[in-house]
Sequence to fold (573 residues):
Amino acid sequence: MKIKDTLENYMFVLPAVVIFAVFYIIPFSWVFQLGLYDWDGILPTKTFVGLGNFSEIAVDKIWWQSMLNAGYITFIALTFQNILAFLLAWACDREIRLKNFYRVIFFIPPVLSEVVVGLVWQWILDGNYGLLNNWLVHLGFPNLVRNWLSDPQTALTAVAIVHSWKGFGWGFLIFLAGLQTIPRELYEAARVDGANAWASFKKITIPLMIPVAVLVAILTVLGTMQAFVLIIAMTGGGPAYHTQVPVLRILASMRGSSRFGYACAQGISFGVILMAISFIQYRFSKHSRQT
Amino acid sequence: MKAVFYYKTKKVTFNLIIHLFLITVSVTCLFPLLWMVSSSLKTQETIFKDMSLMPKEFHFENYYHAWIEGGFGRNFFNSIVYTVCVVIGIIIVASLAAYAFSRFRFPGKNLLFFMFMAAMMIPIPGSFVPLYVLLNKLHLRNTAPGYILCMINVGLSTSIFLLKTFFDNMPKELEDAARIDGCSKLGIWWHVALPLAKPVLAVVVVFNALAVWNEYVLALIIFDSKALMPLQVALMTFQGEFITRYPLLMAGLTITALPIIIVYLLMQKYIVKGVTQGAVVG
Fold:
């Protein structure tokens, strides 16, 4: 009876465990195996190269350039996007009209797909017929007109700003939820004690929001470093590697040059870097919670 | 009196500035979408010249052409099928597992649950590479079941977590009563636990539906034949082939974005809930 009972319990988790084992654990273990081989993905023969792929990555200039590009987009997301998200949340965290309307609007870009967002913005930023250039001419700045997405000087920043446009709604919602947990009595008490709005913002809002800000920062870094579909839709990684990012390189190694082993090695290297970053941020958040 | 007046004007000005700020950002959020719809109603001739948001004539036939000639009708249907199948799959598989993790005792339970949670934390960029190899070996590449199973796996961990958390906080009395009445475990899961879990199931449904509808890279590597592609991949393929047919492309984008926006507006309560709960997970 007891064995039958236990078996019945296992039946409940069986479908999940089977799907998970086949589509997560097996591929996950293959990544580490394939990373040590040179393989085109088709031929049955794989050439063992040991850590060869990894030493090649270490001197792969385009790979490290793509890492820097992702770092740059992440930097814009951490500063511009998250400060905007916080200010909007702070502006909405009060008794004002249309509060819910704003909240609904700000989360529309995040629910859209990266393909849709990327292609619409590509059309707006188009060098010849784009709306932005058209406006610039009409507003009297014809000297600012440029081919935003194929000019090496502007392509990466344009991509980063569109990424922020798509992403700030997440931070906004999390910040807003955080702000709403701050007891109103704290602000009342501060006002009775003669603190002005700025002082209570600085002494109450900011310190209580630090853990939330760290959480948003972690989510932003992990999400932005791995973003790539938006970039495929906007620039395809060009002009000349100027908007390449790591996951795009992995995709290129696999589909472009048919180097499956190298693609897996790139995935491992990048995964380790991401784990290290989130670990450091996690330690930092623990520290900031204690103080 | 003067001080009160001063205080009031200051407050009004302050609120005005705040509204101005919020309205500016709202316009920035909506404008690209309006531009997309507007561009989808222009013709191949006018789209490069007519820069007004309101086209002089509405060319709705673009939607017909995109649907039939552009083939987006077929891809729309595919996207619907994949989304529905994956969501139903996740609901059944994840809620069965979450219910067992929450209510039953069996050896290895904690280890298994930990495994699912670890998968949620560990980033594997480029996981599409081994998945491609796996699906090739299983002869599931370029098939609908292959894509559906992959996508069920993608949503599994988070869904199990959300559901288990809900079951953990759910009172057991009703289930106990059902058991005394002679209901089987499976019967209790289906007749008692699932109906009670409706609020969290809504969150799971909405988030997974959005994720599948918007998914791009797995669909890209899994499907070779156009007839099987979901909308996102079809849009990129169309853009690659007909780079300058902007009215049709914009009509395709509108067809893709519209269902998502409608679902979002109807279910936004659950989305807000999911984001704030999901944030706690991370």
Remarks:
- Chain A touches chain B through 85 residues (CB under 8 Å).
